[in-house]
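Q: Fold this one first, please.
A: Sequence and structure below.
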Amino acid sequence: VEHGDVVIDDWHVTTGDKSYRDGHFYSDKAPGVSLLSVPPYALFVLERRLTGGGLPGFRVQPLDPALEAADAAPEPEDMLPGDVLVYDRAQLSALWLCRLFAISLPTLLAGALFYLLMLRELALPGEGEDAPPTRRRATWATLLWLLATPALGYGCGLYGHQLAADCLLAAYALTVLTTPEDEAIRTTPGLPLLIGGLLGWAVLAEYTAAVPVALMTAWIAWRRGWAFAAWTCVGGLPWALILAGYHSWAFGGPLKTGYDFVYLPEFAEGMAVAYGIGRPDPAVMIQLLFGSYRGLFYLSPVLLLAVWGMGLRLAGPREPGSLRRGDLLLATAIFTWYLLLNSAYYMWDGGAAMGPRHMVPALPFLALGLGPALLRVPRATVILGTIAFAHMLLITAAGPEAPGYGNPVWTYAVPHLSAPTQPGTATTLGRLMGLNGVWSLLPLLGLWWLLWPMEKTPADSA
């Protein structure tokens, strides 16, 4: 936006996720989140220029207070141990705005589609999708995915994982929810082009979505026919060309990525062979699912019931109007893909992360199994969901970058939440407003209180 280029030379000191090619630094990540952040950031920069405000920036805060008092802070390249980089308020505000537009808003839209899927899945015979009990169960299933899994933290962070989840889920939901018999859908390519665009954006956001996109394309051909699938491929083509163009611009070829030019030696060594992907490791799988360090079911125990519910649906008879067995098999395949991939990756813990972050795109598909759980064991689902929500809220409020050691809840989130906010590191609206510790949650909790539907829980209506 500011320089009309994709180099990050002026900002490379703020991140370790960077590539170096021909004398310039670039982001080593897929470009989807950055591209989607261009419109809000451009509007923010325009507003700053029109009002005379300073553009986003950062500075070095030295460990030695005497240097700070003398305005003699070192340059970023000359930082000493203990010195830290601090974003100014303009940069923090710009990041929050980009995060809202590029991640949080798509997550809310995907949540609405997930709710519609759950309405269809949870309607009991003779009850209908509009019945209040059905709506309550669908609401709870949606809230459990969005608030009681790592989707909460990554829906509030500028990462590609949640955007990929949103795009994949939206393409899945639109394929399932639309009626093939509708004349407009059968005769016009608008819907498959939209679905193809969503699948294309999923890969733009996260390269690892390429395999789920291929699986979904084959599934679309089975569910909606070859013509629909062909138009879906056409819809994804522009985004494939954009990705190839970006790779050529930044890295010299359409199939070259930032991971071919990783700058930091500790990352470059790990990515040197097959981009760091080896064979799936069963021991790592156990840690990814059950470990207290990054375990998905440890942080979000309600997802254990989602696995159970998915198994019930696959083994049981199909109810009229609900998801087909092929739909559920696709969801299971997507979750399995991300579990196997994450367990095969050399940095399986995701570094500074909130749970198994590489599995975040699979979470809405696993969460489809929450429907049977809410029907059969609503009280247990609500109890486990409440525990999971507490975990997610604590870590998200502290910042979804739990360090590479210890328990993310008790070693990181709880102590961090009660500590004062460090200058230039605010990650929530409350912290941007100057609120510290638990008080930083007040704007979020107040908004939820205003929006919360005054209805019974699934357990109350059971």
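Q: Good. Now the second chain.
A: Here it is, same layout.
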Amino acid sequence: MKILFISILMFIAPAASSQGLDPILASSQALSRSPLPQGASAELLQQISAHNQNQAILFQPTESEQNLRPFAEYETTGYVVFSDGEFSGYATEIKKRIAEELDPSVTLIIYTQSTDKNYQRSLFNKYSQYIPQDRLKIMEVPESGRNDFWSRDNLPLPVWNSDKMNLVDARYYYNFEPDEFFANAFSVALSHHNFFFEGGNFIVNALGDCIVVNRRRSYPGGTSDTAAIPDSVFHNQYGCSNLIRLKHLKGIGHADEVVKFLSDKVVVTDTEAYVSILEQQGFEVHLLPEPDRDYETYANSLQVNQTLFIPSFGESGDQEALDLFQQLLPGYKIVALPTRRLATGGQGGIHCITMNYPDVPLQEFVESFSGRLLSFHSQK
């Protein structure tokens, strides 16, 4: 008989309901019953843009008295988080390889909306084939819609408040809408604003330089929902001392499609039009190859301590991108993951479906989410 000890992180919060949702979330709810492309439809983007512009009119900025700065991905990561969602199965191998290749200092947290303990146990058993059990946590979150797949977009972003982690929650346009859930589940370490914004459109360094793409409302042209978010939101809640707004030139309009900080001053991009802009900001800029197909990008990679997970598309640019990353990150383990089907299927990339959190004590991490640590035993 084999005894397994399984840790479950459970957040106690009411489940979201379609009743009482605003029109934007209600309209997106109908779209959530089948796999979705990561980017919102033109109709939904128009509604989001109108919402953000109205919020900007009503917005009253307040100066933050906290000593905030963004958490940079190249800083020490203690936790990598992703959902149990697979959609068409395109993410299965990616998530498996990430679990296998994480260094021993990192804990993997997988969140699920399922309350079925047998399913939670099977999820734990599945991933414990790839990562030691003491570094694996299953987190149960309240039922709040089906589109919980893009962790970078729908989870709260970490920031440093002096030497402690705080979290920032924005509104999320798909039906995994975390507002009500996090408002009830998080402690005072959570700050909130009422603008629609996704974490995939937030690329930062540890000096407080923050890059966003002013996403267009529709294709082509239109009013940007991101441009409507006041600079003061990024300064006062995300700790940005320097905000760089890039023009939306391709993709769904997320910064993690086109740019990535590898250190305080080294940045890579696959978009030539951004090179001079970034150089004028004082960065050392390196140009990545552009893949052949729409929505493919080598910039959408995941940096976890001394490991970099990069996309591989089965194209000639794969080796060039690998060589550049190895040149810029000597001593790093570079892990290439098959990402073509995920990207071309409109379901994002490696960075989109994962989240990094700092290396803070687990209890502090739990307290930041106002959760409680539960456990159960299973027998075999």
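Q: Anything worth noting on the second one?
A: DSSP finds eleven helices and 19 strands in the chain.
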